[in-house]
Amino acid sequence: QSALTQPASVSGSPGQSITISCIGTSSDVGGYNYVSWYQQHPGKAPKLIIYDVSNRPSGVSNRFSGSKSGNTASLTISGLQAEDEADYYCSSYTSSDTLAFGGGTKLTVL
Amino acid sequence: EVQVLESGGALVQPGGSLRLSCAASGFTFSSYAMNWVRQAPGKGLEWVSTISGSGDSTYYADSVKGRFTISRDNSKNTLYLQMNSLRAEDTALYYCAKPLAGAWRFDYWGQGTLVTVSS
């Protein structure tokens, strides 16, 4: 079971937009619309921010958006704020009836 | 209010066993597949196992297959993870996670229980 590929780090200034990619294969990201994104602050449990590629759970800011093209999913955060600084993980259901996570991306708000 | 609360983490020697528990409340437990996800110190998230609402179907990561067993007691609203033949690489914070309607995306997580495998 291979992990999905994410950039180790991204950064942006307050008010800017950033995009985090999540690269998989046709057996996971490309084959199913069960891609999710999680935000994790230090010492805290992960928080679901996007599910099924582009849906936001109730209460999640509309500054967070998700999309998918082929085997690559993306998370975009617009209007960056200081509190967005966190680790972000993508996940995808796989054809093996398992769940794959990405390695995580550390977002720094400059 | 939905809550999931893990317990059972401890320091255990390599080759040892441990059983984790996750007490759930605030939702119809038997209606949801339940999950274990772990995070090694300073590392990323790793899915460990999933069990269907009825308990009839179970799924495991290759890294734990044959060593870990997931189970549930719907009468007690409790999820379990029996961990055998523990290895140093199993050292992690183990989270219990409830899915959003359906499966494979988790909207409620516990605070985790720490398992340390060391001699």
Describe this structure in words.
The complex is a heterodimer of chains A (110) and B (119). By secondary structure, chain A is an all-beta fold. Helix content of chain A is 0%, strand content 44%. In chain A, strand 7 and strand 8 form a beta hairpin. Chain A is globular, with a radius of gyration of 13 Å. The model of chain B has no long low-confidence stretch (mean pLDDT 96). In chain B, strands 2, 4, 5, 6, 9, 10 and 11 form a seven-stranded mixed beta sheet that branches. In chain B, strands 1-3-8-7 form a four-stranded antiparallel beta sheet, with no helix packed on it. In chain B, a hairpin with a 6-residue loop joins strand 9 (92-99) and strand 10 (106-109).
How are the secondary structure elements laid out?
The complex is a heterodimer of chains A (110) and B (119).
Chain A: E1 9-12, E2 18-23, E3 35-40, E4 47-50, E5 64-69, E6 72-77, E7 86-93, E8 99-101, E9 105-109
Parallel strand pairs in A: 1-9
Antiparallel strand pairs in A: 2-6, 3-4, 3-7, 5-6, 7-8, 7-9
Chain B: E1 3-7, E2 11-12, E3 18-25, E4 34-39, E5 45-51, E6 58-60, E7 68-73, E8 78-83, E9 92-99, E10 106-109, E11 113-117
Parallel strand pairs in B: 2-11
Antiparallel strand pairs in B: 1-3, 3-8, 4-5, 4-9, 5-6, 7-8, 9-10, 9-11
